[in-house]
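Quick check before the chapter quiz. The format below is the same one you will see on the exam, so make sure you can read both the input and the output lines.
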Amino acid sequence: MENNGFSYTGATKQTNFTIHNLKKPIKIVFITDPQLNRFKNDEWAEKIVAKTEETQPDMVIFGGDLISNEGYFYETSSPNTSVGAEAEWLNIFAKITEKYPSYYVLGNHEYGLGNSNRFDPDHWTGVQSQAVIYEMEKIGAKSLNNRLACVAVATQNICLFGIDDLWGAKAGLTKLDFSELKNWNQRTPIVFITHNPDGILKWPKEIKKPNLVLAGHTHGGQIYLPFVGPLGGAGIELDEKYYRGLNYYEGTPIYTSIGLGESGGPVRFMSVPELTVIELVP
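Here is the expected output.
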């Protein structure tokens, strides 16, 4: 893994991962947990855009928790009255989606859910999933929420499959649906995108395991103490080792990005915000 500078506010982390049946490398920028809010908004989104453009990816995947949905109300000029300013800041990412094929999944913050897996009006603006979908579709990002996308990149095929948010499904606000996997030939390499790394626990047992899983949600612990690990939990079932970096679950590689934003205020320790670059190599 290689760390490159991303000013004082974060780092670009690049990981090369070998995928069989590839003829040429494929570079994926994974943008997860930007959590646009009153602390990090348009300027923060512009920095993410600039760093993404520097990497010159083949595709971009947004991994959920695109907004904080933190319980503050903003004025909005959007004709869609359900859209608040946090979601409107996603328009800045059009500078990415206009240049690179872009995909997205939703996270628990889009549904206004914390570890309690229930909506708490004292902490959330409301269920903003439709607002985020509205803005992401408007800028041309394609949904991977319970969807399969098989695309040609560098004259070769690769498949992406993503699911909607686990906590949103648990709260009855959405659902998890793996049925589109029946359209995957199980030969073309496939990357599974799940906001929460626990998504691998839901992968159908009768379907061949994905070549790689990309996840976020944990913020790497956000506050990570030496010899102790993450301070406070992200509410996942998997072990703490799955909070960051590359790990394996029953032989399946899972890369959990530290992500770019924060929950509960802009505070981190030993969890530098991360723009993730995954290069799939033959």
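If your answer matched, good. The radius of gyration is 17 Å.
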